[in-house]
Description:
The structure holds two protein chains of two kinds. By secondary structure, chain A is of the alpha/beta class. Chain A is built from 16 helices and 14 strands. Chain A is globular. Chain B is of the alpha/beta class. Chain B has a single domain (9-152, 218-258), classed as Aldolase class I (TIM Barrel), CATH 3.20.20. Helices cover 44% and strands 14% of the residues of chain B. Chain B has helices at 9-15, 35-45, 64-76, 80-86, 104-110, 112-122, 134-145, 162-171, 193-204, 220-226, 237-246, 251-258, and strands at 20-26, 49-54, 98-102, 126-128, 151-152, 155-156, 176-179, 211-214, 232-235. Chain B has a nine-stranded parallel beta sheet. The interface between A and B is large, with 38 and 43 residues.
Amino acid sequence: MSKYHVDEHGFYGEFGGAFIPEMLYPNVEELRQHYLEIMASESFQQEFRKLLRDYVGRPTPLYYAERLSEKYGSRIYLKREDLCHTGAHKVNNTIGQILMAKRLGKKRIIAETGAGQHGVATATVCALMGLPCVVYMGEVDIARQAPNVARMKLLGAEVRPARSGSRTLKDATNEAIRDWINNPEDTHYIIGSVVGPHPYPDMVARFQAVISEEIRHQLLEAEGRTDPDYLIACVGGGSNAAGTYYHYLDQEEVQIIAAEAAGKGVDTGESAATSALGRVGIIHASKTLLMQTADGQITEPYSISAGLDYPGVGPMHAHLFQTGRAQFIPVTDAQAMAGGRELARLEGIIPAIESSHAFAVLEMGAVPPDSLVVINLSGRGDKDLQTYIDYFDLT
Amino acid sequence: MAETQSQNRIHQALEKPGKLLSIYYTAGFPNLEDTVPILEELQAAGADMVEIGLPFSDPLADGPTIQESSTRALRNGMHTELLFEQLKDVRKTVDLPLILMGYFNPVLQYGVEAFCRKCKEVGIDGLILPDLPLEIYQRDYQHLMAPYGLSMVFLISPQTGEARIRQIDAASDSFIYMVSSASTTGVQDQFGQGQDAYFDRIHAMELKHPQVVGFGISDAQSFQKATRTAKGAIIGSAFIRLLEREGLGGIRNFIENIRP
Lengths: 395, 260
């Protein structure tokens, strides 16, 4: 048993588990009992692989970034998840989970979304499979992510505003969980990241692990070796990072870097740097590192990137942080925006601002020269155009 | 029984004849200092048991009413230490069985053992921590909590399978919290045939511990239906709405109307 993968109780070290109210027990237990067996079945694998190839557009390229490499004196490859259908890695997971839902006989899909990327990826696969889809989204996020709201509606999903609490991602997640409590028999909840009760963190990581599986093959072909010196990904909840690291977790010679959102600075009170600011606690039924008050009330994080402002982090990542297996680097809004612009100008690729956080660690000197580096480019920047326009005054 | 234990006020209340009326409210709502005055009113009005809610920012199992009361209570300044401070002399005036109900994270931050010790000190009889499931409790926390002699109350729902109900019955030492339907709190208003069949099914299991029904009970009629086979019932959201509407002055009338 690997020390970085989930154990038989659903924990990663002290993190994880399923801290669920009893009303959710039958749903979560049904999933826990069946997910590994379903995922291992040949018919599931065939359907999953076929859709990833023909619908998502996998394998995504592992692109050698020549000018970026030249600037930093290393050999830097980009894993192009931004070229997935719907524009980000999120769809790897929603394809997997919709197939899981069908095999469990579920007739209705619910999801939460923050920036709207996971909501769009869920609405997409529901359209593909002809299943009704309800996406919970914080009222505040609905107002600031109008294009993704429109996309979900165009795809036939119902977008329900979460009006409780701070009216953002964590509240949308609460509302989705409440919906699941109220609809315990026919509904599957497609969680968008490696968060929530066991088995979700493990299941989502396994669906996203197609990323590291491809990196190994592609790097072998390009460089004659499967293992890079450094693997870099941004971490909010941590699904793209989990997918990037998955097949490398036990290869301790591969250095793992997690770029987390420091917002305006770790100590400014406007940050989402969970490893720096969090303490052990429970959020969305998982024990993990969590931003909270001394009294255990969950606080609202801040980042310029709507996909990284989650007050917790997946339990796998909390464990990677605690054991020192991964190095967590807080990246400010300013550093991330500069990293994004640099990629645009050196390589002609506009990254999602989430992914920009991963690129910023290069300028911060996190990688020594002459290294072989793979950075996960988790999403494309189209959705963030307005933020780029405002930030760099591009009008 | 999970472990032999002397009788606490919950056990005594369960042994009395007749149906048991339990009330839930959120500490710190509507006003920060209402915690003990509400208890005194409830005792005077004839309630049999009380669940005091420790407010949490993200109450997953609760509907809008209790969630809103929690948000308001937190805004009023309620926190764990303050609640214990407010309760420190409660046993001078209140004899009702008292149960603290809260989500697990604030308990974890206070320190699980310190929390239980403090509960014992102020005279709390039991705990309901809906997001601390049986397995994790037994594996990681029971050894820390058991020495303080608090009754741990676990929930079942209409979807809970028979084997698991038996398991929960075996782990309980006072009553089983029977969630009336597949819902969060305060959602359901009417009990239908589905509930009747569920109540009969549980009744027929002849469990060791009595059941107290919660979720969806708001008035005399739903109280009667809920307690047809169960020992008692819990009113939460409807009581919160009353406090919102009429303040503490409406409590006696409310309780008398539930159980004339």
